Amino acid sequence: MRKLYVVGIGPGSKDYLSPAAKKAVESSDVVVGSRRAIDLFEDVEAEKIELGSKNVEVKIELAISKVEEDRSVSVLSTGDPGFSGILKPVLKKVGDRDDIHVEVVPGISSIQLCAARLQIPWDGADLITLHGKGISKKVLKVIDNGKPTIILPNFKIDEVANFLIENGANPDRKVAICERLSYDDEKIVITALKGVLEEEFSYMCIMVVY
Ligand SMILES: C[S@@+](CC[C@H](N)C(=O)[O-])C[C@H]1O[C@@H](n2cnc3c(N)ncnc32)[C@H](O)[C@@H]1O
Predict the structure, then answer these.
(1) Closest CA to 21 of 63, 94, 81, 62
(2) Rounded distance, CA 2 to CA 101, Å?
(3) Residue 67, domain CATH
(4) Phi and psi of 207, rounded to 5°?
(5) 80 with 144, same domain?
(6) How far is the CA of 95 from the centre of ligand 1 (A)?
(7) Cα-to-centroid distance, 120 and ligand 1 (Å)
(8) Do 155 and 93 belong together in one domain?
(9) Phi first, then psi: what are they for 167, rounded to 5°?
(10) pLDDT tens string for the chain (210 positions)?
(11) 111 C-alpha to center of ligand 1: Å?
């Protein structure tokens, strides 16, 4: 039976792509992923299927149908597939089918690279993902527990800062924004919560509240 690999490609640059990820993709007949994930494998000869944020389920179904045709498939996830990545929707679609053999290849999460850049031992930090859900007031309690909070936003970072300030967080609270980690234009800004509202950031950001 052919495999359905769920492959973490790391934060984006080839420098953080693991040999295991490369091996899985190179052994696949079909590669499914976002444009920036697929672009890492321009030398790999395989059928490439681009996935966007609005068609994830359809493309996973397509990936499963390719495995049913006895082709090996890699579904790519940026960062690690298990942290707000593609693993959850893949497992949901595969369900309890035992004719689809799923193998997960971990990747370096953007959260890990953020912790490394800022020299935060992340076993002593709180990790929060807002992906697939909105921000709620629960976050306010977490940011006040004495540990750094690493937040993966699901919308623009200024909206997160705004929400925190409007709900009572100190606007002078120290934060770090890590944008486009691992790329040539990577940017790390240490500022105050209110400072986040004064700068433009892309969606590809992690925020740390100290
Ligand atoms: C769908 S989530 C995927 C997270 C991924 N599974 C991981 O482990 O990094 C996408 C979000 O991850 C963050 N992200 C992914 N790559 C990034 C990078 N290179 N630099 C900063 N943030 C990144 C951004 O917040 C982006 O909106």
Answers:
(1) 81
(2) 7
(3) 3.40.1010.10
(4) -115, 135
(5) no
(6) 26
(7) 18
(8) no
(9) -105, 20
(10) 689 999 999 999 999 999 999 999 999 999 999 999 999 999 999 999 999 988 999 999 999 999 999 999 999 999 999 999 999 999 999 999 989 999 999 999 999 999 999 999 999 999 999 988 888 889 999 999 999 999 999 878 999 999 999 999 999 999 999 999 999 999 999 999 999 999 999 999 999 999
(11) 8
Taking the centre of ligand 1 as the mean of its atom positions, its distance from the CA of residue 11, in whole angstroms, is 7
The residue segments making up the domain with residue 182 are 110-209
Residues 98 and 12 in one domain: yes
Most informative mutation of 150, 152, 207 for ligand 1 (most atoms within 8 A of CB): 152
Would the pTM of this model clear 0.85, i.e. be above it? yes
pLDDT at residue number 81: 98
Last residue of a domain, one of 42, 72, 105: 105
Please indicate, yes or no, whether residues 85 and 146 belong to a single structural domain of this protein.
no
> Which of the listed residues 16, 54, 88, 110 should we mutate to test ligand 1's pocket, taking the one with most ligand atoms within 8 A of CB?
110
Pocket test for ligand 1, best of 40, 75, 78 (most atoms within 8 A of CB): 78
The arrangement of strands across the sheet holding 187-192 comes to 126-129, 149-152, 205-209, 174-179, 187-192
